[in-house]
């Protein structure tokens, strides 16, 4: 249910995968892994991340899917080399403003959470190429608009996909043997790539964030300019949809229409 504190002694560790366990916490010594580049702790029972995660300055890929996180530590903004971060299926209700400091972030999966909006600091994520807000995201153009938070009066970004509605228990399959590969393939082909391109900070608030359509093809199909995603393993094992960062982000030629 937990990792030993001594894991922090593995100074040369570059990849750590502890997904599909029953971890309820991560030790603070995780921050001592200064050379860690890939960290996958998906499919556990984590309710928080230690603030020391901010010391992982070499981190490029972070996957914390299918846990119970209600929030992220502010120190996450110090992970400035992260390019792929997946937080799918948690209990996130808000994101810290410091996420805007992760300016190398290119792929962010926030689907199946409880977010009501995004912090205005998202406009600083100039490299962001794909933002997933729903597992069934079906439209490529998802503009963001600036609003004032009703309580704090701070500027936030929102669109018609907010507030997020967490999936109920009936949406999950209890028996892995009931997996329908035909249906899965049809749903897979219907999904699309969403890429965000934010305006300069000096633009009017109403134009603070906008998106551009990269392609109407599914993101795992070749022949498009976008992000190549790999589906999770079909054996019932839990894993992050992002396999390796250096293989996922690539420029591909745009297909020519016949």
Brief summary of the model shown:
By secondary structure, this protein is mainly β. The chain is built from two helices and 13 strands.
What does this protein structure show overall?
This is Leucine-rich repeat-containing protein 7. Keywords: Leucine-rich repeat, Repeat. By secondary structure, the chain is mostly beta strands. The chain has a single domain, classed as Leucine-rich repeat, LRR (right-handed beta-alpha superhelix), CATH 3.80.10.10. It is 5% helix and 15% strand. The chain is built from two helices and 13 strands, in the order E-E-E-E-E-E-E-E-E-H-E-E-E-H-E. It has helices spanning 181-190, 245-248; strands at residues 15-17, 38-40, 61-63, 84-86, 107-109, 118-119, 130-132, 145-148, 155-158, 195-197, 210-212, 226-227, 249-250. Strand 8 and strand 9 form a beta hairpin.
Topology:
Elements: E1 15-17, E2 38-40, E3 61-63, E4 84-86, E5 107-109, E6 118-119, E7 130-132, E8 145-148, E9 155-158, H1 181-190, E10 195-197, E11 210-212, E12 226-227, H2 245-248, E13 249-250
